[in-house]
Write a structure and sequence with these properties.
Blueprint (H helix, E strand, L loop, with lengths): L24 H14 L2 H9 L4 H4 L7 H13 L1
Helix pairs in contact: 1-4
């Protein structure tokens, strides 16, 4: 299904006005890496802890920049 032009990243959000924006796997990977690096993972884990069962909350200990960058690498290779 084609994406309507008015919803592409170059027309809205932080990429508005970047008409020469080339969206490909390298762009996506770089953007996600920057986003992952900017997140306070300890604060994010605490934000979601209240929504999890105690048995699930243990997995929040894994949340870190390193953990999510590894997940990104695995996802990009797939």
């Amino acid at each position: 299904m084609p994406i309507p032009v008015q919803t592409t990243p170059a027309t809205s959000g932080p990429w508005a006005g970047q008409e020469d924006l080339k969206i490909d796997v390298a762009w996506l990977k770089g953007t996600l890496r920057n986003t992952i690096g900017a997140i306070d993972w300890q604060a994010a884990a605490e934000d979601v802890r209240r929504f999890l069962r105690p048995t699930e909350a243990k997995s929040l200990e894994l949340w870190s920049e390193r953990f999510f960058l590894a997940k990104l690498e695995k996802m990009v290779r797939a």
